[in-house]
Amino acid sequence: MKVLTILSVLVLKALSKNLPSSFMVCDHFGSNVNECLTEAINSALVQLRNGIPEIDIPSIEPMRPGSNITVRKNDAIISLHDVHMYNLSNAVVTDLKSNITRESFWLAANFSATDFTAIANYSVHGQLLFFHLDGGGKGIIDFKDTILQASMEGIVVNNRFRLNKFAVKVLPKLVIYDLQNIIRDQKKFSDDVNKVFNDSWDVLFYELEPELEELLSSIWLNYANVVLSYVPVSDK
User: Which PANTHER family match (predicted)?
Assistant: First the structure.
């Protein structure tokens, strides 16, 4: 994963010898499971900054989705590639609910992320807002005071939980853009365009939001299922 996928490990009472002993584990049939999972997830996010070599999970700093984001809006095409996301390991669980049985589980959690950043190479072509754009280069997008809503559902297969759904919603209070060279070789005009985007930050964000959330959801679903393959369902 890169960030929220570790939630799935902590849904279970981890019995596998392949998981590091430093992980806090929870009885997922216990009466205080939600409180335990909240504490365990916050602890695990800190550990994930350095990765989990015992099960070949790389560091989440930075998170590298590996896929491109392409948005087509009327006459404009916006592409982000080679995306790196920073500081998601600083997210903190603020609310968590679960419903876990020996046949299935459901879990939903809200994370508070004060400040995380996406850095990518980007290109944009066509009419966007008031501008005809034909540029590209390094793009920096800062998300401020963001709530990340994560929900997941799964079943039991061969004594392992297997996710079939992982959905992520990104809810920032502010987004700041630095899209360099957005008007090719015209720095002043590029700065002016960035100012307009930042003054109306939600307009561009809402165009990028569905693709961003779909990408994150897909990555975390696959990553979580890899992690869960190491963890048997508790016998308790």
Answer: CIRCADIAN CLOCK-CONTROLLED PROTEIN DAYWAKE-RELATED, PROTEIN TAKEOUT-LIKE PROTEIN
